[in-house]
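Deliverable D2.4 — example input (structure tokens):
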């Protein structure tokens, strides 16, 4: 029962989020041989000012051993609130 969480900056349209969700569901079904009923997708918007603290540090740096695709960027561990 795969559950995929996508964290991204605000600003994408509902249509873009639906298209992304459809693509993720299709790829999970194809790669893992699950039916549509088994896949769920959540989208969480995180502001650029909170990205380092709420995403980069806890989800990328502190769990890097679990990442199958690492980002091509680095950032400081402190963020300035916008």
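Example output (designed residues):
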């Amino acid at each position: 029962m795969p559950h995929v969480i996508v964290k991204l900056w605000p600003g994408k349209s509902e249509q873009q989020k639906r298209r992304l969700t459809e693509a993720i569901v299709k790829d999970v079904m194809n790669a893992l041989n699950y039916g549509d009923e088994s896949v769920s997708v959540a989208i969480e918007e995180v502001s650029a000012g909170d990205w380092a603290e709420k995403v980069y540090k806890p989800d990328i740096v502190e769990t890097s051993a679990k990442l199958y695709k690492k980002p091509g960027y680095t950032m400081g561990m402190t963020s300035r609130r916008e």
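The chain has a mean pLDDT of 93.
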